[in-house]
C-alpha cells in the first residue's frame, strides 16, 4: 500500500472493510456458524482498528459497526454505536501496552467486547427467554474461542490497511 495515505483515508478503508464483512455475514441468508455459534467479525475489526491505528480510528470504526448493527437488529436504537465507540476508544487507549504484541491486544480487546456485550444481552434480553445460563455460557465460551482463532487474521488485515509494519517488541533492561 502507498505509505502516503492519510490516517483519515486509512480509517475510511477500515470502515469499508467493516461494511464488506457485514454484508458478507448477513447477505443472501449467509449466516456463518460453527457449533451453532454465529461468527461475528465486526468486534474484531473494531478492536484491531483501535489497537493498530489509535483511539480515533477505533471510535470511527466502532460508530460504523454500531450503526450497521442498529440498521439490522431489534434493540434500543443508538446503544450499539455508543457501545462499540467506547470499545474502540478503549482499545486505542490501551494500544501502548501492546506495542509489538498487537495480535494479543486485538484478541484481548475482542474478547472483552464480546463477553461484555453477551453479558449485557443476557441481563436485558435473554434472561427473560427460556434460555438457561449453561447454554449462555457455552455460547459465550465458543464465541471467545472463535475470537482467539480469528484474531491473528483480522489483525494482519487491519495492520495492512493501517500501513504499519510489525514493530519489534520492546526489551527492557533487567532490574538491578
Question: What does this entry look like structurally?
Answer:
With 176 residues, the chain is mainly α. It has a single domain (7-162), classed as Arp2/3 complex 21 kDa subunit ARPC3 (Orthogonal Bundle). It has a two-stranded antiparallel sheet. It is globular, with a radius of gyration of 17 Å. Helix 1 packs antiparallel against helix 2, helix 4 (79-93) runs antiparallel to helix 5 and helix 5 (102-124) runs antiparallel to helix 6 (133-162). The protein is 67% helix and 2% strand. It has helices at 7-26, 42-53, 55-72, 79-93, 102-124, 133-162, and strands at residues 33-34, 37-38. A hairpin with a 2-residue loop joins strand 1 (33-34) and strand 2.
Beta-strand proportion: under 5%
The poorly predicted ranges are none
Please state how the strands of the largest beta sheet are arranged side by side. 1-2
CATH architecture annotation: Orthogonal Bundle
| Separate helix tally | 6
CATH T-level topology? Arp2/3 complex 21 kDa subunit ARPC3
The Rg value, from CA coordinates, equals 17 Å
- Could you say which overall geometry the principal axes of the C-alpha atoms support? globular
How many separate domains? 1
Largest sheet: 2 strands, antiparallel
Indicate the mean pLDDT: 78
Summarize the structure.
With 176 residues, this protein is mostly helical.
Task: Record the SSE blueprint.
Blueprint: H1 7-26, E1 33-34, E2 37-38, H2 42-53, H3 55-72, H4 79-93, H5 102-124, H6 133-162
Antiparallel strand pairs: 1-2
Helix pairs in contact: 1-2, 1-3, 2-3, 2-4, 2-5, 2-6, 3-4, 4-5, 5-6
